[in-house]
Amino acid sequence: MTFEKIIARFIKPLSIENLCAGSLVAESRPSKPMTRVQIPARAFIIHKMAQEKQEKRNFSRWYDKNYKLLLIIPFILLIISLGYIFYFYSQHHDIIKKDISLTGGTAITIYSVEDIESLKNELSKKLEDFSVREIFNLRTRKQEAFVVQTTSPPEETKKILEDYLGYELTEENSSVEFTGSSLSKNFYKQLRFAIVLAFIFMAFVVFIIFRTFIPSLAVVFSAFSDIVMTLALVDFLGWKLSSAGIVAFLMLIGYSVDTDIMLTSRMLKRKEETVNSRIYSAFKTGIVMTLTSLAAIITALIITSGFSEILKQIFSILAIGLSFDILNTWLTNASILKLYVEKKGGI
């Protein structure tokens, strides 16, 4: 067979429409193109499955060897945190530094633009316990006012500010708020009671869900570690907590237990899989949950840090707590559950 006959057999005659469209239609046997598409796709899927199995084997070997050592890390951090909180309490007679919303005092808002650093230097000579924060416009990000908070009486604070500013403070250019110490102390006691009560109810619900002591205790212990480590770091950084900061710790209780409950559910209920496979599967889901929450909280922290001290404090505490939650869920809780399930006859 000549070369011209071979070409004529496989190429259709060119029509006027094909020439106008600038296309060339080639005829080939139907089985060959299908084979060329299916074989690489099937090989790719098999390769990915084999790769995933190998990753699980590598994870299992590494985790079986090191999970008890990993359990030591959060325990050391917890002991250090508890030690620092006890030391902090011995120095300040409380486990946190409180702002005037929890101690009582004076808050004066002045609707003008001033040099905040110069103001702080001047007030430090005349007031013992005070703080100054700026108030910014949400859209323009420009300072519109500032707030002076102090434990001093309102009359004394107002006189000192008038001497510095050089003009009288009136209802048109300022506002004065005063909170009594007894009211603030009662409010602080109620917030502490609310945190303890929320933690007790959380533990109660966890024990009802799982009805087994050690897995339930592991969830509660991880949440407790999150709160203690976060509190120790907040104390170490010297932050003065407002009532909003206490509320952030309440929110942290809820954030702390979601991944722990998900991990415990998979470990106790998916008995057809190996222990390490259950941990590996739960980790892939749980770490996405936590990192997604962290990304949202950090974004909100960046946006609000310039104009709202209250929101800044809430989001900062939540970001710290969620970071510790990664450590306590996947090192503390996962290791305790692995020991428990294997002793109960898990694979």
What do you see in this structure?
The chain has helices spanning 3-10, 16-21, 31-92, 100-103, 116-123, 154-165, 181-210, 213-237, 243-269, 275-304, 309-343; strands at residues 97-98, 105-110, 130-136, 143-150, 174-179, 240-241. The protein is an alpha+beta fold and 347 residues long. The chain has 2 domains: 51-96 and 182-343, Multidrug efflux transporter AcrB transmembrane domain (Multidrug efflux transporter AcrB transmembrane fold); 105-179, 2-Layer Sandwich (Alpha-Beta Plaits). The strands form 2 sheets. The chain has a 4-stranded antiparallel β-sheet with strand order 3-4-2-5. A hairpin with a 6-residue loop joins strand 3 (130-136) and strand 4 (143-150). The termini are far apart. Residues 10-29 and 34-39 have low confidence and may be disordered.
| Poorly predicted spans | 10-29, 34-39
**What would you say the CATH architecture of the largest domain is?**
Up-down Bundle
Strand order of the largest sheet: 3-4-2-5
Quickly give the structural class: alpha+beta
Discrete helix count:
11
Residue share in helix:
over 70%
Please name the CATH topology of the largest domain: Multidrug efflux transporter AcrB transmembrane fold
How is the quaternary structure best described? single chain
Q: Please provide the count of β strands.
A: 6
- What is the terminal separation in angstroms? 68 Å
Count of distinct structural domains: 2
State the CATH class of the largest domain.
Mainly Alpha
What percentage of the residues does DSSP assign to strands (E)? 5-15%
The main sheet comes to:
4 strands, antiparallel
